[in-house]
Amino acid sequence: MSQSNSIAVKRATTTAELKTVTAARDAINGKVKGIRALIPFLGPAFIASIAYIDPGNFATNIQTGARFGYKMLWVIILANLMALLLQNMSAKLGIATGKNLPEICREYMPKWLTIVMWVVSELAAMATDLAEFLGATLALNLLLGIPMIFATIITGIVTYLILMLEKYGFRPLEKFIAGFAVMIGLCYLIETMFSHPNLSQIAYHSVVPWLGNHESIILAVGVIGATVMPHAIYLHSSLTQSRIIPRNDSEKLKIQKFSTKEILIAMTLAGFVNLSMMYMAASVFNTSGHNGIADITSAYHTLTPLLGSAAASVFLISLLASGISSSVVGTMAGQVIMQGFVGFTIPLWIRRVVTMVPTLIIVAIGVNPTLTLVVSQVVLSVVLPFPVIALIYFTQKKELMGVLTNNRITTILSTFIAILILGLNLWLILQTFYS
């Protein structure tokens, strides 16, 4: 192997990694074309996309669809477009700098601000883990009848074992998580066939905005909080920072193009899943008069008589796959956040045990799981401006990003997204304290 290739694969420590990086190098050099050229770059965006179809999405999308029918589908489209841009910026940051967003924040921000960012980001990670753990726990409870406490412990053990795949290099874990994403997508393709949604209503309300009352706006903020995830923005830059190391500016541009294609594929899949969650709820619950469905348990029990046990079981299988895979991704993000902002990590098993504690407490005292899921997503939406603003600030700096610096349109659009998120959050806070 040449010296230049050895530099490009210096992080590759397993056969799978070596094959992936070598195949990526061939694609960059133009030796392979088409889908074969894209394959070695598939992975990071699929891991990040899991954050966009976690159990929090199930809770907010089902509640919104049951309550307001097809009218809020446009929020899913808006949130997914926002996610596309932000995840692409995050991936680009890692490729351009060889560092992740928390590391760059620690390097360029005042220490006090870095600490604030770390604390806020850890709170977001806790809210994320809470939603993911609860989703998988609830799925095991409803699908197999396992008591909630034991289901929580099983979820923790399973996610820890999956995380152990990292010791075999990045590729096995990427394939495993991508497999979960495809499984969830297939489940909702099946649910679409079962639920027979109104296609004209889907097409109309996906592009025509509607906001009715106070409740619809709160749910819209929750949907955005469940879709555009703070920890996914942090994590994506980490996944690309040293996966395929560019040797010059030309290679940075080529790697970024492959990354953008992967993000389009992965986020389109995530967008379809989110849309299908909401329009399934609209088709099955809202149109049949069950618009009071406000939790996952009720949704499952109502699905059985309306669509049959097969549809209800597919729903739970997708929830279980979502909960387990997103819990893995959440733990990965938590490690990146701590290492990047404050420069140290804790053993993976300790983080896994600590993040199980809030879920165990909630299960033990009998708090409604779906209500907790929805509230956690609103918390995430409130935290979201912090990484978004930092991402915009750093990706428009020429001295940091070089040839991958944001163009003016990207900066304008991402700034608009930040303002929109801030505005929605301000409205939510005012309504909460003064209504």
Protein described:
80% of the residues lie in helices and 0% in strands. The radius of gyration is 21 Å and the shape is globular. The termini are far apart. The chain has a single domain, classed as Amino acid/polyamine transporter I (Up-down Bundle). The chain has 21 helices and no strands. The chain has 435 residues and is mostly helical. The N terminus is likely disordered. Helix 4 runs antiparallel to helix 13, helix 5 crosses helix 14 and helix 8 crosses helix 9.
Brief rundown of the structure:
The protein has 435 residues and is an all-alpha fold. The protein has helices spanning 3-8, 15-28, 34-38, 44-50, 55-68, 73-97, 101-108, 111-144, 148-163, 170-195, 199-205, 214-227, 230-240, 249-286, 296-307, 309-342, 348-365, 369-383, 385-395, 398-401, 408-434.
